[in-house]
Amino acid sequence: MLRRVLALTSGRIAVVILAAIALLALLGPWLAPQNPLATSDNALAAVSGTHWLGTDYLGRDVFSRLLDGSRISVLGSLEVALVALFVGAVPGILSVYLGRAFEWFTLRIADTLVALPFLLFAIAVIALLGNGLTQAMLVTGVLVSPLFYRVSRAATLAVARSPYVEAAIVSGASVGWIVRRHVWTKVLPPIAVALAQTIGVGFVIVSSLTFLGIGVQPPEPTWGGLLASDLGYLSHRPWAPVAPALLIMVTVWACNLLADAIRDVSGEAGRALANDRKARANRREAAAGPHPAGGSR
């Protein structure tokens, strides 16, 4: 699938952007030119050779804080997506095979989670368990999991009615073997699309929570926290929120672009795209005509 995604221009753009963001998360703390937590008397300084994005209201280097905050933002969004994947996809697949009681129970839980406002619920849980990003992301991932539940359940229902799956059931195959052998390969493409979209949603959620000061302990830098700290000093630095806002927007856009690319290369759409490319290649070869065996005399 990765090769087909990279064959698309949109897929290559999304992968390059997300790879750059991943490198920021891995190397950001070491690439920061200054200590992101160190304060100074040079508060609200303009852009200069020493401070590439200026300084904040405590004199801390904004560029260093932006690089250092990439790690928390990326890890938080991945945590949301992976928790939602595990909590939603596994029950969604098993609900098709484990009987009416399990199906009814999981459907009611999914409907309940959809009705809960995740931001308010995350705030309430953090108030009980303590202000930490892990607690916030676990709760948010559970609240986002109905997306994976419905996607995996719908894909599994489509596969479960196929003749080869029914034949496997009649022959006495176990549910685990059927899921591993037949169901998972068919369910994987829509789950991959949902995962890419959820990572983008995770960035928005992490930024929203850290913007409100939830899930992180000051003075820990985050993209959302940088937005919040800059809003109070727009009269001095009106351009300050541009860098963190642009990073959030580009990352979410790349995640959605990757989801669209995965959707385009999977299923019927993917086969149609591959057939169209093969037909165009054949037409180009036919237009080129046969090549002479020898050179001109």
Shape by Cα distribution: flat
Number of strands: 0
Radius of gyration: 25 Å
Describe the biggest sheet? none
Please identify the structural class as seen in this structure: mainly alpha
Number of alpha- plus pi-helical segments: 12
Question: What does this 3D model show about the protein?
Answer:
With 297 residues, the chain is mostly helical. 73% of the residues lie in helices and 0% in strands. It contains twelve helices and no strands. α3 packs across α6 (133-144), α5 (118-129) packs antiparallel against α6 (133-144) and α6 (133-144) crosses α9. The chain starts with a helix and ends in a 9-residue tail after the last helix. The relative contact order is 0.14.
Task: For this entry, give a set of tags.
about 300 residues; mainly alpha
How do the helices and strands line up, and which of them pair or pack?
Layout: H1 2-7, H2 9-31, H3 62-94, H4 99-115, H5 118-129, H6 133-144, H7 146-160, H8 163-170, H9 175-211, H10 223-231, H11 242-265, H12 267-288
Helix pairs in contact: 2-3, 2-11, 3-4, 3-6, 3-7, 3-9, 5-6, 6-9, 7-9, 8-9, 9-10, 9-11, 10-11
